[in-house]
């Protein structure tokens, strides 16, 4: 049978990757989902007096091109993705509704075996443990399916929600950095997690469509 010319899996295997946790479904970004994600960003991500992100992208929420910028950022990550450097932006859905984004990224993964993560949820979805669940999902993907040796993340000292998630999973301190945030000095706390330190959840991650993605992510086949 001839391949379907409308099937994106022919050239973009990430379109078939799906992660499933008890409440959530995570898929790499697609254009329809990105439009919904941009709407969620417009709904609000954090209080105006706070800034949890190293890059203060939410400060432009009142500008006419803000929603388009959310989509363009994800398109840029998609365009640059390859075995030497990748950033997969998973759209997080509950009951089919996009709630936020969970990113898993790496540089020279095939050599270093390390990943980085970052995430955000719309304010309406916060406070229900979803941030912990979606972090567990990408950590499980990294450790159990891609063979990662370490996972790194970072959060500003006053971002207690993100730091609690890291603590729940078993991350350990990995140094500090000073950054300028809205014109003032702010302390960024780095954290690192290994498979041995990871406090596994009681559930098992469901993964579909990973096999064809391995070469693109610099991961060898793990059977």
From TrEMBL:
It is an enzyme of class 2 (transferase). Signal peptide: none annotated. Residues 21-194 form the N-acetyltransferase domain. GO terms for molecular function: transferase activity. It comes from the Bacteria. InterPro entries: Acyl_CoA_acyltransferase, GNAT_dom, Ribosomal_N-acetyltransferase. Its EC number is 2.-.-.-. Keywords: Transferase. This is GNAT family protein. It comes from Actinomycetospora flava.
